[in-house]
Amino acid sequence: MANIKSAKKRVLTQEKQRVRNAKAKAHYKKALKDFALAEADNDVAKAEESFKLAQKTLMKASSKNVIHKNSAARNVSRLEKRLNNLKSDK
């Protein structure tokens, strides 16, 4: 643990950021898993709903600088491609 007052503040701030980032990562990872499950079940309606949630959580995480904005956009693009393939198969 730090001895200097300003360093102690920085450690507390970093811990808050770590917790916030972990929560955001857990949210978007769960959303991605839900989409994958819907895709595996060939459930288009559930997949569309899961896609919207996944897109929202990824973009929110990128706006909070949890993940890079291009990484979020790439993941959304890939999800959308998988959703369109699922729709065309039906």
Short description:
The protein has 90 residues and is mainly alpha-helical. The protein contains 3 helices and no strands.
Q: What is the string of SSEs from the N terminus onward?
A: HHH
Question: How many beta-strand elements?
Answer: 0
Helix percentage range:
over 70%
General form: elongated
What structural class is derived from the secondary structure elements? mainly alpha
> Biggest sheet, open or closed, and with what strands and sense?
none
Q: What is the average per-residue confidence, as pLDDT, rounded to a whole number?
A: 94
CATH second-level architecture: Up-down Bundle
Kindly report how far apart the N and C termini lie.
Answer: 58 Å
Radius of gyration based on Cα positions: 18 Å
Unreliable stretches? none
- How many helices? 3
How does this structure look, described?
It is a single chain. The protein is mostly helical and 90 residues long. It has one domain: Methane Monooxygenase Hydroxylase, Chain G, domain 1 (Up-down Bundle), CATH 1.20.58. It is 86% helix and 0% strand. The chain has helices at residues 5-40, 44-63, 69-89. The radius of gyration is 18 Å and the shape is elongated. The model has no long low-confidence stretch (mean pLDDT 94).
